[in-house]
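Q: My labmate handed me this sequence with no annotations at all. I'd like to see what the chain might look like in three dimensions before we decide whether it's worth expressing. Could you predict it?
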Amino acid sequence: MDARQIKALEMAFHGPCRAACVLAEEPQAQACIVDMDGYQARTILRELRSRDPQRPLILLSLASLSETVVGADLVVAKPIRLDDLVVRLVTLRERVRQAADLARAAPAKIAVSRRIDDWGRPAVAGDPQARSRAARLLDKGQANALIGTAPDIDLNDPGQLANAYYDPGRFLQSLVIAARDSAQVRGQGVRIQGPWPEIVLDPARGLARIADADQHLRPYGLQPAVLHQARLEYIKGPTLQPGQSGIVALDSLIWKLALWASRGRLPLDTPVDVPVQLHRWPNFTRLALAPGAMSIAALWTHEPQSLIHTAEALKLPQRSVFAFYSAAAALGLAQCKGGTARTSAASERTHPLDPVASERRGLLGRIARRLQVFF
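A: Here is what I predict for the chain of 375 residues:
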């Protein structure tokens, strides 16, 4: 980056980001920020990865980056918005801290792999009794709104075990996933209409638009939906553009709908004593961060564990583990090894679908204009 960009970042870190991080010389850095629109950016990216393959990277880019370029790195779209940058920094800090906490919390039970441990290099000093700092990003009320308050179950009690399950096919979650899949096959967008606020999906761009605020959609996501009242209208041509009002990531919408529907329960037929395989680390920069999510992801990335053992090993309520699995399964990120859990919305659908057919200035730019006043 040029000197002006670096000065802008310094001001952002010191001010709005509340000194969550500081700029350092590259050899001492715990993470690196790369402007992918800069000169020879990809060459610089390869060199950074070559020198320290495990060091996290934040990539800034005007254009969308392919997964082969991004890998496990975090991405901030340009023009940079302050809230996007703060979320990435918090996610990055929690990854480092969670790795250190996981290594300290239960060394006898959980052998932390080099891959996970490397997120914590160099080690971050902290309270040796700290527990799941990621959960502290949510207050109790927010956590309850996401995953409910279901108590732990007794596996030997058939009645309690039955109450630990829900049928995703009866909820708005499955309708949105099925509409996404159908629109993707058609190469179109789709408008989902019904008693709920209108939802528009653009699978090609991975975007969704909700006609009203989150709190107005939430009641429909919590209860079994009247899916027979749904009407799908397919849309030709460009559907949604980043930056439009009400736009969210499509994955984040499905993730949140799954958390609301789950309420700390599991999809039908999910075995609680079979190891869970996490296929890919969730993109926590744009997903609602439920309590314990990062600890669970770190554990399953190292070695598949059953849902019950995960709750015991991480000392989390079962509802936190069950809710995380339900949301990850809805996105196809997790599956019980050898289990019969249904993660495809198409197979969960219980009603036929009706096939009827303010831009913000970038953070660096705003700060740079202020710099012209002061310097």
